[in-house]
Amino acid sequence: MNTTPQPETRSGGRFRVLSRFRLLISSFCTIALVAVAALVLPGTANADTTVTSNSTGTNNGYFYSFWSQNSGQASMTMGSGGQYSTQWNNVTNFVAGKGWNPGNTAPVTYSGSWNCNGNCYLSLYGWTTNPLIEYYIVDNYGNYNPSSGSSRLGSVTSDGSTYDLYRTQRVNQPSIEGTATFYQYWAVRQAKRTGGTITVSNFFNAWAQAGLNLGTPNYQILATEGYGSSGSSNITVGSSSGGTTGSTTTGGTTGSTTNGGTTGGGGGSCTANVTAGDQWSDRYNLNVSVSGSSNWTVTVNMPAPEVVMSTWNISASYPSQYQLVAKPNGSGNNWGLTVQKNGSTTWPSFSCSAS
């Protein structure tokens, strides 16, 4: 339809032209309102997002990372929550997944499917800085064990299987800080699986006991990786309300904690004596000495947004992201934890219960 106004040549022509404009404007307004309504109506589904080039960001409340050495050989499609799927074909090397930034020691749960033709890994994967460390908790792998050729440093039993511990070094290779030389820490599961709970603190503690110290947490994802291979995966990742090792003992009263102070209370007689340890710009250590009992449970309640990064000399479980339950692991009554500040320096509260 030609909507350009024509010269008036007869009686009433002006009104016909104006009517056409009013009708046209009304139509445009109606279309605009419909478009806006489609954007704001509750319950409207968001389309999945597919990435094929290197990128990081957030998607539906989760951090994501996609890295591929050669573009066009792999893709990741991200759905609701922690769900993502990948496809790769004769890929040189790629790593993709969803998780958190920064990572922490809270247990991680995941489920889904994973199909590999060649050299592939399914792992909880992350980085730290100062020192620069790339780490893998490998739950499944293809026709190549990623620890092949490395010296075994020990093992840890967690979440229904034994994981073998290794360290390797990468020289002048891609990293989150550009081309660099750095160590990789490995925990490789003997009984392969696709899905379950990963009690992250068990692995951080095991690496530390083997002399492999992590730095400041960077990102952490439940990752699909392919190297000279083809395959696909469909994974949903989330935080767990607790791990599969250790248990929480209830009862007792929570005492208050002050810097260099003590706290006690509980269903028996014991006291958790807390003192300051080393401090850095982004984290600090607390040293804990339990007295009054050799069979105890100490509950640590973290003030958000602070979280526990790592622990030593205890059996640790995490009923929630902001709570640590500590029990003896045979190393005595002296133990400690590293707290990630996240902008806060308020000490957590401690309560001790003897059994």
Automatic annotation (TrEMBL):
Annotated metabolic or biological route of this protein: Glycan degradation; xylan degradation
PROSITE patterns recorded: CBM2, GH11_1, GH11_2, GH11_3
All copies of domain GH11, residue ranges: 50-238
One of the GO biological process terms: xylan catabolic process
Family classification: Belongs to the glycosyl hydrolase 11 (cellulase G) family.
Gene Ontology MF, one: polysaccharide binding
Source organism per UniProt: Actinacidiphila cocklensis
Signal listed as a keyword: yes
Active-site positions on this chain: 134 (nucleophile), 225 (proton donor)
Signal peptide as annotated in the record: 1-47
Key words, A-Z: Carbohydrate metabolism, Glycosidase, Hydrolase, Polysaccharide degradation, Signal, Xylan degradation
Top-level class of the enzyme under EC nomenclature: hydrolase
Gene label: xlnB
Biased composition (Low complexity): 246-260
Protein name: Endo-1,4-beta-xylanase
Region (Disordered): 232-267
SUPFAM superfamilies (UniProt xref): Carbohydrate-binding domain, Concanavalin A-like lectins/glucanases
PANTHER family linked: ENDO-1,4-BETA-XYLANASE A-RELATED
Family annotation (InterPro entries): CBD2, CBM2/CBM3_carb-bd_dom_sf, CBM2_carb-bd_dom_sf, ConA-like_dom_sf, GH11/12, GH11_AS_1, GH11_AS_2, GH11_dom
CBM2 domain sequence ranges: 263-355
EC number: 3.2.1.8
Short name of any one Pfam family annotated for the protein: Glyco_hydro_11
Enzymatic reactions: Endohydrolysis of (1->4)-beta-D-xylosidic linkages in xylans
